[in-house]
What does this fold into?
Amino acid sequence: MLLGTIVLLRIALTTPASFWCGLPLVVIGELIRVWSAGSLKKIDQLTVSGPFALCRNPLYVGSFLITAGYLVMCHRIDAAIIGFVLYWVFHGGAIVYEERMLRERYGQVFESYYKAVPRLVPCLNVNGARGGFSWDLLSENSEYRAAVSSLVVVILFGLIAYDVLLGWW
It folds into this structure.
């Protein structure tokens, strides 16, 4: 992921317009990831509240939106095509693998959840999405690192968009 982001920044043809079009995707994606990480109780139990009541893989939804935002900011169709393909190759396999592990670990509980909640496209189960957020879980799941990384990448795209780096990069 880091290497891909560095390559994107290096080949970027970011304009102010592409920067501002991509920024909301990154912000929304990061907010989804923060909400998800602050609701996720790894290992202890199957998390089915908060964003996990809306879709089974909200962290991947957030990551996809962040990736889409970076690709829009990059402002290169070739990078966007390659980036989206690589995203689904790596993350699609991870989703299938994780669901297999959850099925083995939680059995029928996961099976019921699997049948009731869509994988990636959120359903509108507003009542189930309430509760479950914890700042301690957010910290424990280290999402603050990803949020800081996103902020740094967004700043770099902004500097490229407004020619602040002046050819240094």
